[in-house]
Amino acid sequence: MGDALNTFLREQLEHRRDRLESALNQFGRAGQLAQLLQEVDSALERMDQGTYGLCEACHEPVEADRLMADPLIRFCISHLTTEQQRALEQDLELASRTQASLLPKPHVVQDGWELCYHYAPLGPVSGDYVDVLTAGADGGNLFFLLGDVVGKGVAASMLMAHIHATIRTLISLHRRVDELVEQANRLFCESTLAAYFATLVCGRASHNGEVELSNAGHCPPLVVRGGQVERTEPTGLPIGLFSNSQYSARRVSLGKGETLFLFTDGLTEARSHSGEEYGESRLTDLLAARHGLSPQALAAACLEDVNAFLAGAPRADDLTIMVLRRQD
Ligand SMILES: [Zn+2]
């Protein structure tokens, strides 16, 4: 298990221990509280012995995202009782519906821009983050966001929901994307789950074709002008690493019919049966060849191309693409 995760879990356990102790002092040694305290102590003991985080049935590591959600669990998914497995499935089903309800409209037309995205979680929930917002009464404020929380599964999806709520709160306070990302980073660093980090692109499109991008360590968005494709490099580190990180913004100007293509690494790092990556150059070739397409058609062409490349090989990560086109 990683050191950062271990430190994080130990802090969580010690914090719980303190809270339980003070509750016990207040309410007396009530049965359930005393038993919880025993479980926490036993987890701390296992941590000292080096057996913490290993399944008690098969001695293989318990899934890290499940430990983050509940540091007291002692069995891997394969060794849960049927009843526990059913409860877990119900939780995931609920988490999946909650996450789906956070997604923006799949197709937006505003101020001379057309935007669509495709969101494909690997499992029931995703660590990818996508949002589209319009702020301000004066128009010209189409904000679009795409991010990727490190890791997959439930813990990543919880952090994704956290970022979603943070950005929704901050967006009314900021007009500049770099300030928005800078403050989101500070808040993310202060959150209790900050043993993890995320990459994030925040963009704002104006009606005159200007796009402002602040990119916290995310895969470079691609600008498609006719048959030419240009990368726009990151402007800062991923969020959640250092609370005092500084972010800048980059401006790109899009002419009519030109496109900005954003994606998560689940696209370019998809691997065929032989282990070959789909890669950015395949993507660039496709975008150059199909530059005239509408956002929806371009997204569909891209998915078709990556699926043809995979030829049935299973995906290993969440995958999201977003296409923003300046209308003709
Ligand atoms: Zn097991």
Detailed description of the structure:
- By secondary structure, the chain is of the alpha+beta class.
- The protein has two domains: 3-80, DksA, coiled-coil domain (Four Helix Bundle (Hemerythrin (Met), subunit A), Up-down Bundle), CATH 1.20.120; 106-326, PPM-type phosphatase domain (Phosphatase 2c, domain 1, 4-Layer Sandwich), CATH 3.60.40.10.
- Helices cover 41% and strands 20% of the residues.
- The chain has nine helices and eleven strands.
- The strands form two sheets. Strands 1-2-11-10-7-8 form a six-stranded antiparallel β-sheet.
- A hairpin with a 4-residue loop joins strand 5 (198-205) and strand 6.
- Helix 1 (3-27) packs antiparallel against helix 2 (31-49) and helix 4 (82-102) packs parallel to helix 5.
- The longest helix has 25 residues, at 3-27.
- The termini are far apart.
- Zinc ion is lined by residues 55, 57-58, 60, 75-76, 78-79.
- The site of zinc ion has 8 residues, from loops.
- Mean pLDDT, all residues: 89
Q: Helical proportion?
A: 40-55%
Strand content: 15-25%
Top-tier CATH class of the largest domain: Alpha Beta
Q: What is the string of SSEs from the N terminus onward?
A: HHHHEEEEHHEEEEEEHHHE
Q: What ligand species are in this complex?
A: zinc ion
| Category from helices, strands and their pairing | alpha+beta
Biggest β-sheet: strands ordered side by side in the sheet? 1-2-11-10-7-8
